[in-house]
Design goal:
Blueprint lengths: L3 E2 L9 H6 L10 H18 L7 E6 L2 H11 L6 E6 L2 H12 L3 E6 L8 H10 L4 E5 L1 E2 L4 E2 L2 H11 L4 E5 L18 E5 L10 E6 L1 H9 L10 H12 L11 H17 L1 H21 L3 E2 L10 E5 L3 H10 L2 E2 L1 E2 L9 E5 L3 H4 L5 H12 L1
Parallel strand pairs: 1-13, 3-4, 3-5, 5-8, 8-9
Antiparallel strand pairs: 2-10, 6-7, 9-10, 11-12, 12-15, 14-15
Helix pairs in contact: 2-9, 3-4, 5-6, 10-13, 11-13
The protein binds pyridoxal-5'-phosphate.
Enzyme class: transferase
Protein name: alanine--glyoxylate transaminase
Organism: Kluyveromyces lactis (strain ATCC 8585 / CBS 2359 / DSM 70799 / NBRC 1267 / NRRL Y-1140 / WM37)
Length: 367
C-alpha cells in the first residue's frame, strides 16, 4: 500500500480523478477532447468566481511557477515598478521571478506567520507608480493567509491603475476567492493542490483589462509563456473549436475537468467551509498538545498547517515509518524548527478516510 501523502501538494486525489488521469490518449483537436477542455475552462469561471465574459481562463502544461513567468513576461515592461507583499518563501520567489523580466521590485515583508499592515501597503502604494502588486493569498512556507478583500479594496482606492496579481496556488479550491468582486487582474494556481489533480498544469484567469494590456504589450519576449500565442487557443477551446499552438496534456486536462466537476457538485462554498472546519479542528487539537502554530490565528490558512516542533526531522521520519508523509519547513531562518501538514482535497473533505485523524494521532505519538 502506498503512503498517506499529506504534504501541502501534490495531494491525494479521488479515484475518479486518478482514473481520468490515466485514460488512453485522444487526438488533441478531436471533438471528444475539445468537449473536455471546454468543460474544464467553463468550470474554472465558477471556481475563480468571475462574472465577466471578457476575462479568460488559461490552462497550460507546466506548474505553478509558470504563472509567475506569464505575469513577468506579459503584464509588465522592463523597468516597470512592482510591489510584492511577502509572507514567506513563495512570495519572495515570485519577486525574484519578476526581477528576471527587468522589473524593479519593492518587497514589503512580514515577520514569519504575520502579515504586512494595511497602512504600510497604503503608504508604499502612494510613494510611486506601481505597474502591479503581487499578493500570495496563502504562502505555503508559513501557512499564512492574506486578507485579500481588504488589500484589494485598498489598491483600488489608492492606485486603481495597478494590476492586482494573486498567487492562489495554495488557496484556490480551499479558501474563499472572488475574482470579480475583489477586482483581481490575474490569478494563478496549479493543478496539484486544492484543485485536487495530479501536478502538471498551470491554471490561471486574466481580467479583460489585463488581457487587453498583455495583447498589446510590445516588449513580451520568449515563445511558450507568451499570451499572444495562448489566448486564441483558450478562446477557441472554450468556444468548442480545437486549435493548435503546443500539445496539451490530454490526461491532465481530463483529470482537471473531473476534479472541477467534483468540486462544483460538492458545492464551492460548502467545500471551502468544510476545509475551514477540518483545518480549525486540526489546529485546535495541535494547540491542545501544547504546540505553537507558525501563523497567527487571525491569518491562518485552511489548506495546510505549519507548526513548531522540537525535532522536526525526528517527527517527519517517525511519521514516515508509520506510512504518513508530511513536509518540513522551508522558510529561511526558521526552516529547521517546524513541520507542515497539507489538508486539501479528499483528505479535508471526506471524514470517512480519517486522514487527518491518522496524522494527528501519529504526531501526538512522535513529539
Ligand atoms: C504559494 C505557491 N506559489 C507558487 C508555487 C510554485 O508552484 P509549483 O511548485 O507548482 O511550480 C508553490 C508551490 O508549492 C506555492 O505553494
Amino acid at each position: 500500500m502506498s503512503d498517506l501523502l499529506l504534504i501541502p501538494g501534490p495531494i491525494m486525489v479521488s479515484s475518479a480523478v486518478e482514473e481520468a488521469a490515466s485514460i488512453q490518449s485522444l487526438a488533441h483537436t478531436s471533438p471528444e477532447f475539445v468537449k473536455i477542455f471546454q468543460g474544464a475552462l467553463q468550470k474554472l469561471r465558477t471556481v475563480f468566481q468571475t462574472s465577466n465574459a471578457g476575462d479568460q481562463p488559461i490552462v497550460i502544461s507546466g506548474s505553478g511557477t509558470l504563472g509567475w513567468d506569464i505575469v513577468g513576461n506579459n503584464l509588465l515592461k522592463s523597468g516597470d515598478s512592482a510591489l510584492t507583499i511577502s509572507t514567506g518563501f513563495f512570495s519572495d520567489s515570485f519577486a525574484e521571478c519578476l526581477k528576471t523580466y527587468g522589473a524593479d521590485v519593492d518587497v514589503l515583508k512580514s515577520e514569519p506567520g504575520k502579515v504586512v499592515a494595511l497602512d504600510k501597503i497604503e503608504s508604499q502604494l502612494k510613494s510611486k507608480k506601481y505597474q502591479l502588486i503581487t499578493l500570495t493569498h496563502v504562502d505555503t512556507s508559513t501557512a499564512t493567509l492574506l486578507d485579500l478583500p481588504s488589500i484589494t479594496s485598498l489598491v483600488k482606492k489608492v492606485s486603481p491603475e495597478t494590476f492586482i496579481i494573486v498567487d492562489g496556488v495554495c488557496s484556490i479550491g480551499c479558501e474563499e476567492f472572488k475574482f470579480s468582486e475583489w477586482s483581481v487582474d490575474f490569478v494563478l494556481t496549479a493543478s496539484q493542490k486544492a484543485l485536487s489533480c495530479p501536478s502538471g498544469l498551470s491554471v490561471s484567469l486574466i481580467s479583460e483589462r489585463a488581457l487587453s494590456y498583455a495583447l498589446s504589450n510590445e516588449s513580451t519576449h520568449g515563445f511558450y509563456a507568451n499570451l499572444k500565442k495562448w489566448i486564441p487557443i483558450m478562446k477557441a477551446y472554450e468556444a468548442g473549436v480545437g486549435q493548435y499552438f503546443a500539445t496539451p496534456s490530454i490526461q491532465l486536462v481530463n483529470a482537471l475537468n473531473v476534479s472541477l466537476g467534483e468540486i462544483l457538485s460538492y458545492g464551492l462554498e460548502a467545500r471551502i467551509a468544510k476545509n475551514k472546519k477540518t483545518s480549525d479542528q486540526f489546529k485546535n487539537n495541535l494547540k491542545q498538545l501544547g504546540l505553537t502554530l507558525v501563523s497567527e490565528d487571525s491569518n491562518s490558512a485552511h489548506g495546510l498547517t505549519a507548526v513548531y516542533v522540537d525535532q522536526p526531522g525526528k517527527v517527519i521520519s517517525s511519521l514516515k515509518s508509520k506510512g504518513i508523509v508530511i513536509a518540513g519547513g522551508i522558510l529561511p531562518g526558521i526552516k529547521d524548527k517546524y513541520i507542515r501538514i497539507g489538508h486539501m482535497g479528499i483528505s479535508a473533505i471526506d471524514d470517512n478516510l480519517h486522514h487527518i485523524d491518522k496524522v494527528f494521532e501519529a504526531i501526538k505519538e512522535s513529539i
